[in-house]
Amino acid sequence: MKKLADDLSISSLDFQEILENVATGVYVVTADREILYWNKAAEKITGFPENEIVGLKCYETRLKHLDDNGVNLCKNECPLVKSVKTRKKIEEKLWVHTKDSSIKHILVKTIPLYRKGKAVGAVETFDDISQIDEIERINRELKEMSIKDELTNLYNKRGLYELLGSIIAKAGRGVKSAVLMIDIDKFKKVNDRCGHIEGDRILVKLSERLKKSLRIEDMIFRPVSARFGGDEFVVILEIGEKTSKENVMFIAERISKSLNEIETCVGPLKVSIGITPVFENDNAEKLLNRADNALYSSKISGKPVYTVM
Hints:
Strand content: 15-25%
Shape: elongated
Structural class: alpha+beta
Radius of gyration: 31 Å
CATH class of the largest domain: Alpha Beta
Number of domains: 2
Largest sheet: 6 strands, antiparallel
Order of helices and strands: HHEEHEHEEEHHEHHEEHEEEHE
CATH architecture of the largest domain: 2-Layer Sandwich
Number of strands: 13
């Protein structure tokens, strides 16, 4: 530590005590990458004690920094080297080999140190973010669960309203989309005669058919709620500049044909579909009401597909 104090004009024992008690790993290297200082938190995170690190060049230690592709950065241009070369602070998420041969995800921050315009070294701080990664993963899963229908694994009402806001915003930028409202005709009869287990099987089967009938970028929803019945589905199509009304009708008719082939205990399934484009001055309720009206027109006309364009 004395060498560090001499090289970097640091003399305060209080400063050393602070470094030894912070929860963040801290180490200091010279311009030629010799490690001068290694604090207790660095040892705790990596398992390597000070006497196995200090005095070595950083690329000579068993402590290896890896990028997301598994490339060993210690052999090339690690964040410390980049920081000194560019005279800039560097912040990156990397992986580090620990003494027990495990790998931890760390957030690295490096700061170049200069004295009278000459590079004298750099400081690197690092924190173990493995637990943060796990919390973020759990949060992603919980969010996914919150916007998915439990029975069909399609997006639910919450997921629908989130995406509607996005596609309405895109309409303002010239991206064309269409909303399809799909309803199973007389589905109550299926539940009454065949039971709810059979009704659920048909809903799952319909969901699978919908996925096969659409592109991977198209979105399907089963937004069961006070507003939507359990036999209603919503599809959002991004239709592009060159897609015509006829193309959208073709897709809807293909969906209708595929779904109407599903057999139930009361005969083949029959669905009605209403279609409406998305306008830049829409809001979610206006858009869904228009799709609802198109669906209602489809039902009373007896036609499988009806559209309001």
